[in-house]
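Lab channel / #folding
Pinned by the channel admin:
"Please post every new chain as: sequence first, then the structure tokens as a reply. Keep commentary short and put observations after the output so the thread stays searchable."

First post following the new format, from NK:
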Amino acid sequence: MKIFAIGMNYAAHNQELYATLRRPDEPVIFTKADSAILNQGKPFFIPDHLGRIDYETELVLRICRLGKNIPRRFAHRYYDAMTVGIDFTARDLQKSLREKGMPWECCKGFDGSAALGKFITKEELGCDVQDIHFHMDINGERRQTGHTADMIHTIDHIIAYASRFFTLKTGDLIFTGTPMGIGSVKEGDKLEAYIGDRKLLDLRIK
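Reply from TO:
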């Protein structure tokens, strides 16, 4: 099972983090180790040695069939369910690695850094996947809101593009990018994430 994540897929987030409205010509893909998965109901323990840890709330897709070089017009056949996830990021380490031109795996793919909510099927959602509203609250306060219509690269384009480089397999996951509003977590925080009014993720920080 593979975990893919898309960087810089919301222009407003790019501006808050990189001071630019840059729109990448193609999806920016990075990966996480399978040990990064943190399933619903389990707490996130802040690593002592990684400095500031930021939350990035994202819509997550679950791949449901084998696919390689998938045409965009058929991409919708290759995922069957979605949830809201948190891409935890060691921000201080990321800044240091970026300045040195080094890979991001240590700041993005560490254990527990891919928190997942409960998956719901596309049929249960009952809406266009590019018209999904999602949000995340911390301690009852709204921190991030996202709308898939604001994605720079659509879900189907992400799947088609990723399949040019990687064979997608049943159970693979794709984190589709975070909107603006990222911030740090601290011990005792409670994160709750929703698609529409459905709460899919309930997470304690320890």
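NK: The chain is about 15% helix and 35% strand.
TO: also worth noting, The mean pLDDT is 94.
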